[in-house]
Specification:
The chain has about 90 residues and is of the alpha+beta class. The protein folds into 2 domains: about 5-45; about 50-90, no CATH class. The protein is built from 4 helices and 4 strands, in the order E-E-H-E-E-H-H-H. The chain has a two-stranded antiparallel ribbon. It has a two-stranded antiparallel ribbon with strand order 3-4. Strand 1 and strand 2 (about 15-20) form a beta hairpin. The longest helix is centred in the middle third of the chain and has 18 residues, at about 30-45. The radius of gyration is 16 Å and the shape is elongated.
Length: about 90
């Protein structure tokens, strides 16, 4: 069966399911939109730190619990290198 979709980051740490194959079902876009909204609610209300990185190591998602654990707001973390946020300077190798 073909892949229905994937999660892609949007600005301000929001996600959207994209790249769906419309031939899967005619309702695929609406279902993906609903799943995207559910994913957003789950990630925003998680009691664990949830973050996502780009291939470059830069933060593309930072949920509220991650703010509490690491002390950086979403605005401070977005686009920053994760290592610069959570690894003390004396332990960095670069």
């Amino acid at each position: 069966m073909p892949s229905v979709g994937r999660v892609t980051p949007l600005g301000q740490a929001r996600f959207r399911l994209t790249n769906f194959h419309p031939a899967v079902t005619p309702q695929a876009p609406q279902k993906l939109s609903a799943h995207s909204a559910n994913l957003e609610r789950i990630l925003d209300s998680a009691q664990d730190a949830v973050f996502a990185l780009a291939h470059s190591g830069n933060v593309v998602f930072w949920n509220p619990e991650t703010e509490q654990i690491f002390g950086y707001t979403q605005e401070e973390a977005m686009g920053a290198e994760l290592a610069n946020l959570i690894v003390p300077k004396q332990y960095r190798r670069f």
